[in-house]
Amino acid sequence: MGEQAQAVPLPPWRTPRKAPAARQPLSQDAIVETGLRVLDAEGFDALSMRRVAQELGTGPASLYAHVANKDELLDLLYDRVLAEVETPRADPGRWREQMRDLALHIYEVLSAHADIARVAMADIPSGPNALRITEAELAIMISGGVPPRIASWMIDRLNLYIAADVHEGAMYAARQRASGKDAGEFISDFFGRFGDYYRTLPEDRFPMMTAHVDDLLEGGGRVRFEFGLDLLLGGLARYGAPGDR
Amino acid sequence: MGEQAQAVPLPPWRTPRKAPAARQPLSQDAIVETGLRVLDAEGFDALSMRRVAQELGTGPASLYAHVANKDELLDLLYDRVLAEVETPRADPGRWREQMRDLALHIYEVLSAHADIARVAMADIPSGPNALRITEAELAIMISGGVPPRIASWMIDRLNLYIAADVHEGAMYAARQRASGKDAGEFISDFFGRFGDYYRTLPEDRFPMMTAHVDDLLEGGGRVRFEFGLDLLLGGLARYGAPGDR
DNA sequence: TTCGCTTGCGAACGATGTTCGTGCCGATGT
DNA sequence: ACATCGGCACGAACATCGTTCGCAAGCGAA
Predict the structure, then answer these.
(1) Which of B158, B139, B82, B99 is nearest to A212 (CA)?
(2) Which of A152, A167, A210, A236 to substitute to test the interface with B, most B CBs within 10 Å?
(3) Closest alpha carbon to C1' of D8, residue
(4) What is d(CA A53, CA A74) in angstroms, rounded to the nearest whole number?
(5) Residue B60 belongs to what domain range?
(6) CATH number, residue B41
(7) Which positions make up the DNA-binding region (chains A, B) (predicted)?
(8) Cβ A215–B126 below 8 Å, yes or no?
(9) pLDDT by 10-residue block (mean), chain B, 245 residues
(10) Is residue B1 part of a domain?
């Protein structure tokens, strides 16, 4: 202790190079954590190297000592989010229920950082947490009696489906952010507009759409996600998966 | 005829303002068609306003008289591609087969312009061709006996699934383009690397993945797409859809 | 001490989407 | 036939973006 000069007010002509910031000395973790904060607060489009650097009280060039480029930062961000996913121990008798719960859990974790899905769809996940989750899913299904190849493909399709749905949700969220309205007003406006538009379509060329406008627009993101999830799980029955009903 | 002066070599001191270009006089259609050519030949990342303008022998500002902004151009591009989708007349007895064929057909049309999926996932399709396809899908399923709300949600999930899968394929294609290798070499290299990596994982923490490496990597894009498609269609059975088996 | 290496960072490069101002050209009104 | 006017083409510029370069400062090893 004591090797640093005690804090003393700077001479007024010695203008401080910056707002002192007093940040931790910059590390990959700090960069990732800051990036996640920006992503959650302002969305994918606001997530730039400059924005992250500014949040850390430095310039964009400083980041490149800890991160190869933006793509690598996005990879790290994605795995950082996947770290929040808790994987259960396989219980052979309840494989279908476990898979459904896990899929919903992943859906919720990703949705909590909605715009991360723009990243998830942009590259093949191979970080440690992605591996952990894949291993858990394989264990659940194979120990439950699903043939290994079917289980492998199922995991692939499930992850694709989850990422795509969250991605779609993030699109709506981005538009809502851009519109300035609050969430409720935005979606009722949005679907109202769509409904009005559908109803003005010529009935002779669009008999089905005009007749079933309400069905087309009914149901929010969550309900539709569960519907598709149950389709995928239900379809497994004919591929040698032990059915629980 | 003859109202144009016959072609004569320009005086050498009169440098032509550009390659004479002799383009058609610029229209929304010409812009969209050119954009599609760029997209197919060089991918989504190469599709810039400047690139399209250059291809048309003009500057980027000229496009904005015919197209509001890049997003609108992408919308137009997407519907232009959907125009290539042929929609069948509904045949009530074969609704499931018709839906499967139509989904595969859409998958193929989108795959032929692979990078268009980056657009498809980025906004809610509402162009005339998207409407036409939705109407056809509704007709097939409802006339086949599927309850209207289930049919509506099914269409939503199917379109999401198709777009997501083509999108994933476009990612691989983009990486392959960037790598400079040809398609075959690229995918065998790529999956070879993944397989090698999986096999080096510690067996105690990843018993499932190390044991089933081959299953995880087996099957190309098309086979997996059909697998997921059949999961979705098969899952419909429990939602009041008349089953054909 | 001196060397070398990592880290921080200001400045700059090339590229992007988009806007502004200015012409031109052809249709329209008289 | 001539004047006028509106839309289209387009060069230039602006604000951003990701990324690289070159240099200064700190620090551990020799």
Answers:
(1) B139
(2) A152
(3) B65
(4) 15
(5) 28-67
(6) 1.10.10.60
(7) 48-67
(8) no
(9) 42 40 70 95 94 91 93 95 95 93 97 92 86 96 94 96 95 85 86 90 93 89 95 89 62
(10) no
